[in-house]
C-alpha cells in the first residue's frame, strides 16, 4: 500500500524540524500522504489546546470543510512553510474540517479538526494540489520572519 521508506523518512524528518505538518509532496514523493503533530508547549498554551496532538499520518486523505461561514469571513492568520523558509503570510482558512483516510497500517482514520489543527490539515492538503500558502495569502501580507520583532508590514 505505502512505501515504508516514505513513512520512515517522514518519521525521521518531522521531529528534526519544528514543523507542525508535512505532505509527502514536499519531499518529492508523489503519494497522497499528510502528517501532522502539535507538541510545542507554547503553541498548545497559546491556542488553548487540551494537550499535545500525537504524530498522525493520513494516506489518501479526503477533506470536507464544515465551517458554516463563507470563505471571506474565515479567520486570517500568519502561516509559514518549510517549502518557503523564513517567510510567512496571512491566509484565510476554515475553522472546522472533517478528514477521512487511512493510517500507515491500512486502517481507516476519521478526524474532526478545529482551530489550529484544521489550519494545519488544510495547509498540507494544499501541498498535495501543488498549492503553497503564498498562493492563498492576503495581498501585501508577506513578511520575512527574521524581522517580525523590528516591524510589522501588515497588522490585524
Report what the structure shows.
This protein is an alpha+beta fold. It has one domain: Peptide Deformylase (Alpha-Beta Complex), CATH 3.90.45.10. The protein is 24% helix and 35% strand. It has 4 helices and 8 strands; from the N terminus they run H-E-E-H-E-E-E-E-E-H-H-E. Strands 1-2-3-6-7 form a 5-stranded antiparallel beta sheet, sandwiched between helices. It has a 3-stranded antiparallel beta sheet with strand order 4-5-8. A hairpin with a 5-residue loop joins strand 6 and strand 7 (108-114). It is globular and about 40 Å long. The protein starts with a helix and ends in a 12-residue tail after the last strand. The model is unreliable at 152-156 (pLDDT under 50).
Short description:
The chain is of the alpha+beta class and 156 residues long.
Strand order of the largest sheet: 1-2-3-6-7
The chain-level structural class is alpha+beta
- The tally of helices reads 4
Note the gap between the termini.
45 Å
Largest sheet: 5 strands, antiparallel
Gyration radius (Cα, Å) is 16 Å
Count every beta strand, where a strand is a DSSP E run of 2 or more residues. Answer: 8
What CATH calls the topology is Peptide Deformylase
CATH-derived architecture:
Alpha-Beta Complex
- Beta fraction of the residues? 35-45%
Mean of pLDDT: 86
Instruction: Please mark out the parts with pLDDT under 50 across 5 or more consecutive residues, or reply none.
Output: 152-156
Q: Which shape, going by the Cα principal axes?
A: globular
Helicity range:
10-25%
Q: What is the H-and-E element order?
A: HEEHEEEEEHHE
Amino acid at each position: 500500500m505505502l512505501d515504508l521508506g516514505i513513512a520512515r523518512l517522514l518519521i525521521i524528518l518531522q521531529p528534526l524540524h519544528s514543523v507542525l505538518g508535512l505532505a509527502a509532496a514536499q519531499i518529492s514523493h508523489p503519494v497522497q500522504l499528510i502528517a501532522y503533530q502539535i507538541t510545542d508547549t507554547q503553541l498548545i498554551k497559546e491556542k488553548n489546546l487540551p494537550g499535545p496532538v500525537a504524530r498522525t499520518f493520513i494516506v489518501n486523505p479526503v477533506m470536507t470543510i464544515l465551517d458554516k461561514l463563507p470563505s471571506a469571513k474565515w479567520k486570517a492568520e500568519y502561516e509559514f512553510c518549510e517549502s518557503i523558509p523564513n517567510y510567512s503570510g496571512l491566509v484565510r482558512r476554515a475553522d472546522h474540517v472533517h478528514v477521512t483516510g487511512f493510517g500507515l497500517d491500512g486502517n481507516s482514520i476519521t478526524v474532526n479538526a478545529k482551530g489550529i489543527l484544521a489550519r494545519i490539515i488544510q495547509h498540507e492538503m494544499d501541498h498535495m494540489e501543488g498549492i503553497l500558502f503564498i498562493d492563498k495569502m492576503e495581498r501585501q501580507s508577506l513578511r520575512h520572519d527574521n524581522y517580525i520583532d523590528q516591524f510589522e508590514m501588515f497588522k490585524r
